[in-house]
Amino acid sequence: MAESPGKRRGLEEEVLTKDPVDVLIIGAGASGAAVAWSLAETKMHILCLEQGSWMNPAEYPSTGRDWEAKFYGEWSSSPNVRGRPEDYPINDDSSPIKVVNYNAVGGSTVMYTAHWPRLHPSDFKVKTLDGVADDWPIDYDALTPFFEENDRIMGTSGLSGDPLSPLTHPPMPQQPMGLSGAIIGKAMNKLGWHWWPSDTTVATTDYEGRARCINLGHCTPACAQGAKSSTDITYWPQAVRAGVELRTHCRVREITTDETGMATGVVYYDKDGVEQFQPAHVVIVACNGVGTPRLLLNSKSDRFPNGLANSSGLVGKNLMFHPYAQIYGYVKEPTDSNRAPPTCLWSKEWYDTDLSRGFVRGYGVQFVRGAGPVFEAVVSEQKGILPWGADHHRVFRKLNGHRLGFSAICEDLPEEHNQVTLDPVLEDSHGIPAPKINYTISENSRKMMDHALARGREILETAGATDICVNSPIPWGGWHLLGTARMGTDPKRSVVNEWGRTHDVKNLFIVDGSIFVTSGGVNPTSTIQALALYIADQMKSRLANLFD
């Protein structure tokens, strides 16, 4: 914390008039919700501060016919485009991939596509297996019971038994393959390549108070039906009933510490913009791989001049995005368009290292059913395949409802020069420095992307697709924010230990995607939540000597 004597004195006076909470959680998204729910059984006083608000599903875009148009403005996945009061700006000019997130109760689970793979066992042993990056200090088996618990609470649908993926036991049957899935599956069979119905967190049956999917529209940006699992309708109702306090419109500026180096609480701005101080015995950060380093770097003091929990110098470094290599085309047969959850199949054919491909590690593939008519019109005009003039409607009919997509989620290896810092000029509406992103795609990742695009083209051509288009990387594809406060046993090479406690501050924990050591080649949300549940379990088992 900045050492202004007057400000320090004022905070100390306020501490005397406010009772500290036992546990203070910053962020109410995927990981914050999971850790709050798990710790609730301890009956401690748990408070979560969230800078966004509770969402109203009646106001979601999918309640109206203009839902696609709203995706380009107030419901954009990018905070820089959205510009809601709850958002903070991000300087990502020095990155080919732009950050996308959402600030609300539920966080980015409000916006995600509900695609639901797990990291593979090999992802935790990358150094051992492939001689790159670092091994995690925990393995897949340590997280298995928490994956299973999370799948039950979030409510997953899928088909158990995929031979190339970790074994899962979804409580609901898989999404229908639909028109698109059948076309893709036949093409993959001709090529002799692996495919499997995707696990998702979209309900295929009525489940725990959630109605089944009725295909209101694309799962992004939000599901008015409540069929898509987001933590505001899964974890948070249970956590609040168990006694967790959730305070919205609270933007945390910094975490404070005392002369012994222990966290004492947070300074935040309330819904009226008034600066407040909330003392706490334990602080848990759950602000994602950009928000967490931003907060830690802004929490400077005489004892922590380079930011909180940053003796390693690694806070904000090793940012991993997952570069997405996307290729799509158009078939004569009708496809599903937006009449179903967007991902129907996945493939792990190229997931693990095969050095004959010219790169280490690999990528997962998600097949996309199609696109809605507004999106199709806008993007096809940009790509130059939808002309203006007399031929416009004929070509649009050929494209609309005939798209097939292939997206490769390419593993991003950690590199220290890919990082989050504090911008020296840009600030949010409360004067807090905005995060600045510096990120480049590695040569290894570029080779991986090229390989994926070549395989995608083979699949699409086998399916009879024409007018093939490429986005590589997807520019607005920074959904996965990982690695900027990595986990490890060596305080010189990591920010948190093997159970999420920061090496430098014994009562400060991190539970979000920033603690990832490697990124894998799959969407990370299920693993983020399993890690949060694991860390909460470790905290409960160590309560008697938590700060030793």
Key phrases:
548 residues; alpha/beta; FAD/NAD(P)-binding domain; seven-stranded mixed sheet; six-stranded antiparallel sheet; 13 helices; 16 strands; 17% strand; globular; disordered N terminus
Protein architecture, described:
It is globular, with a radius of gyration of 23 Å. Strand 7 (about 265-270) and strand 8 (about 275-285) form a beta hairpin. Residues about 1-15 have low confidence and may be disordered. Helix content is about 25%, strand content about 15%. Helix 2 (about 30-40) packs parallel to helix 8. The strands form 3 sheets. Strands 1, 2, 5, 6, 7, 8 and 16 form a 7-stranded mixed β-sheet that branches. The protein has helices at about 5-15, 30-40, 65-70, 80, 125-130, 140-155, 180-190, 235-240, 290-300, 375-385, 390-400, 445-460, 525-540, and strands at about 20-25, 45-50, 90-95, 195, 245, 250-255, 265-270, 275-285, 325-330, 345, 365-370, 405-410, 420-425, 435-440, 465-470, 510. The protein is an alpha/beta fold and about 550 residues long. It has one domain (about 5-370, about 400-545): FAD/NAD(P)-binding domain.
